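User: Could you check the structure of this?
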Amino acid sequence: MSLQPSPAAVTRTRAFLLLALANLFWGGNWVIGRALRDAIEPVTLNFWRWLIAALILAPFALPGMAAHRGAIRRSAGLLVLLALTGVGLFQTLVYVGLRTTTTVNAVLLNASAPLFMLLCSWAIERERATRRQIAGILISLAGILVILSRGEPDSLLRLEFHAGDAWILLAMPMWGIYSVLLKRRPPELGGIVFLFVISVVGVVLVAPVFALEALHSPPRWPTTGEATAVLYVGAFASVGAFICWNRGVAIVGANAAGFTLHLLPAFGTVLAMVFLGEAFHAFHAAGVTTILAGVIVATRASHRPDPQPER
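Assistant: Sure, the predicted structure tokens are below.
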């Protein structure tokens, strides 16, 4: 009897490694957003991130653009809205939040994203929430409050919140809207073409704010380390993570892949501790455990929107 794993098992294992790699790339993006907080303005960082991604994708996407011109024209409004929420607003708000909160706090709050997807599904698609989903949302809300209060309930009574945490939480509905609307994406638009289109549209939408930001705070020439970091978020956190994620989802399916998104807070926390010297406190553990418990309760009995890249 052979002890060698079957080809299917090997393929499945490789798929989960690709999914884990995608989450590692995304975790690095949050750490870099925090590390560059004093060097590069949030909108500027987001502008260069997606411009780099668009330039990398262009050679692969442009040859097939003509065939998809009709679909792009018919869905222009939807594509603009997807670019605005997923590319423009979500990541800009995250980078703004990372200026005044730690990476550990931010990535743990990001674990609440599936709950915001459920809320947006109700608001946009009128999908009624079940009792389990409502219970899960309330449980996760308790976990969010633990992290926001830094484990000190008195601060909630005094309404003392950290601005960075508020910006991160504001980003979550943007991701929820993007994820729900993503189901309406034209099926004929392939992954590479779709990402290229929303990257280009996102750059166009962010460009006016980037120009105003540059006038107010003229950018300086980046150091080698800063330029490398910006290239990372454009090439790896955007394009590389997307390729790994799509390949993994194609093999194991979106539902199984969705559970690997919980690796992002773990990777982000470890990277922040190693590279930024941030600390992991007991209230972090209590908060993220409660959030994830709520996510499990809410999503086990529901059809969760397919988790998507660009994080």
